[in-house]
Write a structure and sequence with these properties.
It is a single chain. The two termini are about 35 Å apart. With about 300 residues, the chain is of the alpha/beta class. It is elongated. About 50% of the residues lie in helices and about 15% in strands. Helix 4 runs parallel beside helix 5 and helix 7 packs across helix 9. The chain has a 6-stranded parallel β-sheet with strand order 3-2-1-4-5-6. A 3-stranded mixed β-sheet has the order 7-8-9, with helices on one face. Helix 2 links the parallel strand 2 and strand 3. The protein has a single domain, classed as 3-Layer(aba) Sandwich (Rossmann fold). The structure holds NADP nicotinamide-adenine-dinucleotide phosphate.
Length: about 300
């Protein structure tokens, strides 16, 4: 184990992502001290039982005191409230980052509260599972996954390099892009698949002429893969939908058009069109396997929630 990168890291939110960070920080010795804050006493107690950090708080402002790195891992809709609460206690020179699945909204919510001298670098590790809470995390969640930063125009390059180094030590590959682009890319590779999954599982559950027992019994025919996505945390995904609505609606409009074309091909018995599309999409799948981002990759096979964007 080499020299710790930080003296004190504060983790605000200790669910799947926060607790995975706690575990990898401990495993790799990335910080001398890890301070943990979460909203509820129950979750805090569980984090303590799991020995995820060194000090524990329900007040996030106490956790961030003297922290060199603060990582906010809460549902994106809570970003403003957390930023407002911690802002007065942030140490000058500290790096403040987040892991939220939408970026433009998080920047809009947090930036107004960030004090002068604190380096705010929005981030998003493209790694996850359908599980939530402190028990769900694991140290290798971020291995071979992309972590995207969406820096602000005045972001200090040295702070960005330091944060990139931290995520590299967690096993991630780094990409940098602007927030609007991130939100569009993620709308198609992550947000839409989840929305489609939520919708198809809801539809199947609502059918009159197919019983729920049959849906469960024959799920392996394809439905099962959707149910894993549709089991994802309702609060997180409600917030993602509400905070990336523009990009999601744009992608949904495009998706609906393409679905209508597919519907027409089926109605008119246009086998060539169906064959052509299905052959093309098989190629897309092959490219994902070649990029090492397929469902059989080490952690992706078990979870596979968020995928690597194409460059
Ligand atoms: P999670 O397991 O549900 O944990 C959420 C944490 O946030 C808990 O510690 C929870 O505290 C706290 N929290 C919830 N509501 C809050 C509020 N209103 N104010 C303050 N704290 C609150 O969630 P997660 O999966 O780790 O997701 C955290 C963030 O990571 C989200 O922004 C999500 O978009 C992003 N992300 C998720 C994934 C994924 O696949 N899960 C992947 C990449 C990024 P209590 O339990 O004490 O209430």
């Amino acid at each position: 184990m080499s020299e710790p990168m930080f003296d004190r890291i504060a983790l605000i939110g200790i669910g799947l992502i926060g607790s995975s960070l706690a575990r990898v920080i401990a495993a790799k010795g990335l910080s001398r001290h890890v301070a943990i804050a979460t909203r509820s006493v129950e979750t805090l107690r569980r984090a303590e039982e799991l020995q995820l950090g060194h000090s524990y708080y329900t007040d996030p402002a106490e956790a961030v005191q003297n922290a060199d790195l603060v990582i906010v891992s809460v549902p994106v809709g809570s970003s403003a409230a957390v930023a407002e609460a911690i802002a007065p206690a942030l140490k000058p020179g500290a790096i403040l980052t987040d892991v939220g699945s939408t970026k433009a909204s998080v920047i809009a919510q947090m930036s107004p509260f960030v004090p002068e001298g604190v380096h705010f670098i929005p981030g998003h590790p493209l790694a996850g599972t359908e599980k939530s809470g402190p028990d769900a995390g694991f140290a290798d969640l971020f291995v071979n996954r992309w972590c995207i930063f969406t820096p602000l125009p005045d972001t200090d390059p040295a702070a960005l390099e330091k944060l990139s180094g931290f995520w590299r030590r967690c096993g991630s590959n780094i990409d940098v892009m602007d927030a609007a682009h991130h939100d569009k890319v993620l709308a198609i590779v992550s947000h839409l698949p989840h929305i489609i999954a939520y919708n198809i599982v809801g539809t199947a559950d609502d059918l009159q002429n197919v019983s729920k027992t049959e849906v469960i019994k024959y799920a392996a025919s394809g439905f099962r893969d959707f149910t894993r996505l549709a089991a994802s945390d309702p609060t997180m995904w409600r917030d993602v939908c509400l905070h990336n609505s523009e990009a999601i609606l744009e992608m949904l409009a495009r998706f609906s058009e393409d679905l209508a074309a597919l519907q027409r091909a089926i109605r008119w018995g246009d086998g060539d069109k169906l064959f052509e599309l299905f052959t093309h999409t098989r190629g897309v799948r092959r490219s994902i396997i070649e990029a090492g981002q397929d469902v059989d990759a080490p952690d992706f096979g078990r979870h596979g929630i968020e995928q690597q964007p194409s460059k």
